[in-house]
Amino acid sequence: MSRRAIKAINWAALAERIPETEKAAFSAFKAKSDQHLQRMNAYPETIPKIDWAFYKKNIAMPALVDKFQKEYEAFSVPYPADKYTSVIEDEEKRILVEIENFIKKTNEKIGIANKDIEKIKSMLPFSEMTMEDFRDAYPKYALDPINRPTIWPHTPEFQPEETSKHKPSPDGEDH
Questions:
Q1: Cα separation of 97 and 7, whole Å?
Q2: pLDDT at residue 24 tops 90
């Protein structure tokens, strides 16, 4: 028979990871854990040995003491089988792989975002751009009178191809 408990918990490392909103619950949990550990440590590591010779000498029926001794020594309280440690360790390994994959994907996204930031920082500010600078930087959005002529106010809903699709003609019929 042995006492199975974690001897030391790094409470400071745990406290660093707890959000501010959960500090009170964490403190209550730590206090409850400390009380349990204190109660557990109040008892000896192993149960005290019984002096069977003393009882055989001082009790009138030594056969009864022998019977109690035999039954006491045969009695054992088995610890439950540990079915969960291996499951938890497997889950931890799986989660660590997921964390590594997440970190790798996130670092790739960060790299792409940093490239975009550098591209934006290297661009000419809109306030200093000419129409030609805007066309070179954003050909998809710039006005192109040669290849894509538009009419004022140059928004999609006011263009002839858009109006013929969505608005009725002046004679009241859809075209």
A1: 29
A2: yes
